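To: structure subgroup
Subject: Chain for Friday's discussion

All,

I'm putting the inputs and outputs inline so they're searchable in the archive.
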Amino acid sequence: MDKLEKLLEWGGTKRDIAFLVISGIALVISIFDLIPLPFDAAWFAIVLCGVPIILEAIIGLVTEFDIKADVLVSLALIASVIIGEDFAAGEVAFIMQLGGLLEELTVAKAREGIEKLVNLTPPVARKIVNNKEIITEPEKIMVGDILRVLPGETVPVDGVIISGQTSINQAVMTGESMPVDKSEGDEVSSGTVNQFGAFEMKALRVGEDSSIQRMIRLVQSADAGKAKIVGIADRWATWIVVIALTAAVLTWLISGEIIRAVTILVVFCPCALVLATPTAIMAAIGNATKHSFLVREGDALERLADVTDIAFDKTGTLTYGKPHVEEVKSFKEDISKEELYTYAACSELRSEHPLGKAIISHYKNNINKEIPQPESFGMIPGRGVEACVKGKNVIAGNTAFLEDRNISISEKEIKEAQSYLNKGCTLIFIAVDNELAGFISLADTIRENSGEMIEGIKKAGVNPVLLTGDNENAAKNIAEQLKINEVYSNCLPESKLDIIDKYQKANRNVCMIGDGINDAPALKKAYTGIAMGGVGSDIAAEAADIVLVNDDIKELPHLLSLSKRMMITIKCNLTFSMVLNFIAIILAITGVLNPVVGALVHNAGSVIVIINSAFLLKWRKRK
């Protein structure tokens, strides 16, 4: 059904383009009398472009008593036809349909984000009944059921681990760049991914109460609460219609010439007014596309021009979202940093853990030595790895692993490790022959252009805010480096939504920039949403108004400036079109203009508006 609707929608667009092409050719034939026909060729434009406008105006008036710009257009069309000014009627219909098509082309395609969120729920779950594993559907899981989750599988419902140890990728819910170690007693959320060890869990929240289903509802409710910007011509349509009809009737009564009244209706048609906004938006969208911004919503740039705050997710947005080795610290005088690093790299060589892979990658790029193969290797999910390296027993893992092996940590060593934890780093402790030898600290890496970008948006008068699911230390460390004053850490999708709602209730328009599935509700709720398209999830991109295709955030200040420039262009277009209309009305009242000349004046005004908008295509603020 959805595919059929999309096909019909695209078919409608192609039909509108075909009608405009035929109407344009017909108007050229009409004005220059190129082909002898039994009727005026302008009737092609009247029927193909004018009739749909009249029908839409009638439906709007009858069903909702909604007076839009098309009401005045319909009056002008009908009046022109009645007095025999077919070309004027066809020209007005053509211009209005062209403006409508341009506006339609700026509207976003149908979104599929909700469907993709639903697909995050695994198709099956492993339920344990009488020590036997039964494959069932997640929808049939009840609170209290015992489930088994194997490595690589998605957690089907919310629950608590009752046996087993593992590491869970929680990026779908929190956006955290590092997997989180889990063991007995720890809670796990639906939609998150079990990376290593198998475990058994007890279901706590199922069906509509599960985390992933709550996120789906958040996305839906956030989208429903976002109002659409109304076109300026439609916003003023009621007054325009009343003034036009009053002026036309008074002119007819005073002068006794109906042609003057019809001319007033023709020149009052807001052709340039209708084109003023969509042409500027399309030109600005073209400019944004050149700088890797894909604008998915027609009014997204209008919204962006009014934002007061930009809320950034940390992982994958301001940072690369990948762990990077920051420091290697040795506690033993007889073990150098390089030697300790070699022990760690060798023990992690066969590991599939992201932290282990980061150590291997950094070692290869910086030490430039071949990593010897371990003589033996074992991985303990949720703890770390153990290997035999050069005849020595090497353990690389977390503090829980050290406690399991009765390896003590002195107060001095704890204090030194804490200084790195305070910076938001993740630590891997290294023990050699059951004695703590040191640790390796890893952290997310700030994007190369993040600092310059934050400075640029501050100069544009916009306040940066950090909104992240990471812990407080990691959030504060990044915020200090980038000079962001407002920081919110440990944010779940619900809390991000609440924070944005709080800002917007204080009359602050928030732009949200994120990359993860967990950012989707906030991207929809925000006044404007921008998703990182390169490393970001499809769901985040579908939820956003704008997608940054190549993840190069240095162009964000340009996008902000472009949106403000676009609004200036729109205001200039509107002012020009209103002044032109005012002058044309005076000339029509005095009898200087007839309907055909009035329509041509509108043509000239529309062309000037389009040319002025076209300057946005290559616009860039001078430094």
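Points worth raising on Friday:
The longest helix spans residues 556-589.
The two ends are 51 Å apart (CA to CA).

D.
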